[in-house]
Amino acid sequence: MARAWTIGVEELTEEAFAPYGRIVAVPPAPAPRSGPGWDCWFGFQALECPSPLLFGAVVTKPREIAVSEMERHVDTFELLYPHGHALIQPLALPLDMDDPDARPDPSTVKAFRIPVGMGIIMHPGTWHSAAFPEAEETTYSFACMQPDPSYIPEWVRFTDDDAVTVTRS
Hints:
With 169 residues, this protein is mainly β. The chain is built from one helix and 16 strands. The strands form four sheets. Strands 1, 6, 9, 10, 12, 13 and 16 form a seven-stranded mixed sheet that branches. A five-stranded antiparallel sheet has the order 2-11-8-14-5, with no helix packed on it. The chain starts with a strand and ends with a strand.
C-alpha cells in the first residue's frame, strides 16, 4: 500500500548534506585575487573527471513539491548550481549501488534549500528529482561526466508507489 511522506526543507550545511554529497560555496576567507569590482577564489573544490564533463540547464517553474520518482547516476557525481533564485532539491541516499533494479527509499529523502552562490555535488548514485524553485521561476545548471553512450536516464518510482511531499515553510 502506498504511503504519503511529508518532509520540510533543510538549510544546506556540510554536516546535513554529507550523506548525499559535497557543498560548493564561496569560501569565508578573503579572496586571494581581486580587482576593481571583483573578488576571485579559485581551486576551492575539485571534480575528478576521467571522462568529459557535460553541462546542462533547466528552467524550473513554481509548483507543488511532490515527488514520486527519482533518477541516479551510479558512475558519476552530479553538480547542481542555481542562477537567480534559490532552489529546493529533494534527494534520497545512494543505496544498493550494484543493484540495477534498485529503487529510491522515501524514508531517506531530504529536501535542501540551495541558495544562489552555493551549489551541490551529489555523490555517485544519489537519487534526485528535478529541482524546484523556492519561490519563483529560475534556472539552474548541472554537470556530470559523460555516461556510457547507450545511457538513457531512467526515472524510478518509489517502492509501493509511495510519494514524498515537501512543505516550503
